[in-house]
Write a structure and sequence with these properties.
single chain; about 300 residues; Rhopdopsin 7-helix transmembrane proteins; three-stranded mixed β-sheet; 3 strands; about 5% strand; sensory transduction; olfaction; GPCR_Rhodpsn
């Protein structure tokens, strides 16, 4: 395939969630509400941690603030475009816009996965080595770990883009989804993509699956260790680990389903995509704040101060 054909596709058509105009209107108001709640919930966590000195200096809340920021960015990469397509007849995205959406989608998503992994490490140190916690999880270490997660996200996303940008696209140009993602885009390439798919699955799917398994093992170890703690500390540690485990499950299970298998289209794909691109970023702040007395107290203090 020559280079001319590779640049023939100038835009992609996103088929979206439904062809029914009535259903699209329902989806618009539903997902607009979810997106606003996502902004409100994650924004509130970021503001609370930033303005509360005690939370800001605690590694767990510093990482939680970073996670909320990534959730906010992650949702913003796809949801606004989806909302605009639900109320317009022009459901297209330029080739460059599609590639940019893929890059930032995988950048924010992989950064979030790395932060969740760091949060598991933070909990392990806090529960298993409490006397050395402040020394190991110093403020400088937290910043280095946060920067490393961002760097890891950039490397992961750039690797994806290097693979996909070398593919020729000469038609068709319809994507059966509400945003650009690799499994759908790669199927439109005018060449055999078997090797690229294997590399993509190795880069995204297997790495995600391995991280998920390691996190499950680490939280299992933590839950076993918690049994030896005193009642009050046990209850608090158990609540924290349960919150983390719920978020890890919500983030990792859909990603493993989408990326740790050959790129074939299944009926449940759109539903799973909605779960981890729209719903999960809204649920994360609810899970962390509703089960966390320190966060709720800090939010009340900030509300009382502002009033």
């Amino acid at each position: 395939m020559n280079q001319t054909n590779a640049t023939e596709v100038r835009k992609f058509i996103l088929l979206g969630l439904s062809s029914s105009s009535e259903l699209q209107l329902v989806f618009f108001f539903l997902f607009l509400t979810v997106y606003l709640l996502t902004i409100l919930g994650n924004g509130l966590i970021i503001i609370t941690v930033t303005y509360d000195h005690h939370l800001r200096s605690a590694p767990m809340y510093f990482l939680l603030c970073n996670l909320s920021f990534q959730d906010l960015c992650y949702s913003t990469v796809t949801v606004p475009k989806m909302l605009s397509h639900l109320v317009t007849h022009h459901k297209t995205i330029s080739f460059q816009g599609c590639m940019a959406q893929i890059f930032f989608f995988h950048f924010t998503g992989s950064t979030e996965i790395f932060i969740l992994t760091i949060m598991a490490y933070d909990r392990y140190i806090a529960i298993c080595r409490p006397l050395h916690y402040e020394l190991i999880m110093s403020q400088r270490t937290c910043w280095v770990l946060a920067a490393t997660s961002v760097l890891g996200g950039v490397i992961h996303s750039m690797t994806q883009m290097v693979l996909i940008l070398h593919l020729p696209f000469c038609g068709p140009n319809e994507l059966d989804n509400f945003y650009c993602d690799i499994p759908q885009v790669i199927k439109l390439a005018c060449t055999n993509t078997f090797v690229v798919e294997i590399l993509m699955v190795s880069n995204s799917g297997l790495v995600t699956l391995m991280c998920f398994v390691l996190l499950l093992i680490s939280y299992t170890v933590l839950l076993v260790r918690i049994r030896n703690h005193l009642a009050e500390g046990k209850s608090k540690a158990l609540s924290t680990c349960a919150s983390h485990l719920m978020v890890v499950t919500l983030v990792f299970v859909p990603c493993v389903y989408i990326y740790a298998r050959p790129f074939q289209i299944f009926p449940a794909d759109k539903l799973v995509s909605i779960l981890y691109t729209v719903i999960t970023p809204m649920l994360n702040p609810l899970i962390y704040t509703l089960r966390n007395s320190e966060m709720k107290s800090a939010m009340k203090r900030i509300c009382n101060y502002s009033m």
